[in-house]
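Input (Flavodoxin):
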Amino acid sequence: QTQTELNTNAVETTPDKILIVYLTRTKNTKAVAEMIEAKVGGTLLSLELETPYPEDYEAIVAQVAEENETGTLPPLKTEVDLSQYETIFVGFPTWGMQLPPPVKTFLNENDLSGKTVIPFNTNAGYGVGSSFETVNKLCPESNILEGYATRGGIERDGVLFVMEGEKEMEVSKEVNDWLNSLGF
Ligand SMILES: Cc1cc2nc3c(=O)[nH]c(=O)nc-3n(C[C@H](O)[C@H](O)[C@H](O)COP(=O)(O)O)c2cc1C
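Output:
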């Protein structure tokens, strides 16, 4: 193989042009974000709300359901200038089988057109729901690459952070394989 052929699948970017933005509550998605950063470099950015969600699980579930129903986009405290970034990883938990409202806010108020967008997700075992589809919809002019999802916590059952020990090793390997398959 020639050098050109070897590189056909390579994502042509440098760490200073990579942003890893994520929403997290119990830090599972954050752990995946850090694994991505360990492999490709880039800048980590946690999405924070102007008004944080309630600590109580039932209360946040109710509030998110209400926001999803009414299409409310909760204002973010986090502001970022995306102009220097070419590749944007967007990480989030599944909430109510959807993309969490703060991530909808982020994708709504920032222009990601012409950029490469790569979603990643943790969930309680019910999958990504409509979240990846919604990323596609909210980034119509972006080059969206295959996402990654894994099982995280099950807060409903009191299972919060799980990215340690064997699980952490397993996810870390999967994340590496996924990033390799994308050409990183
Ligand atoms: C408000 C809320 C709604 C959730 N809805 C779902 C869901 O619909 N499906 C699912 O599999 N997990 C659901 N979960 C569980 C989270 O997706 C899972 O615990 C995830 O790993 C949390 O990521 P984090 O630790 O980065 O916050 C929900 C969690 C919360 C707090």
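The two ends are 19 Å apart (CA to CA).
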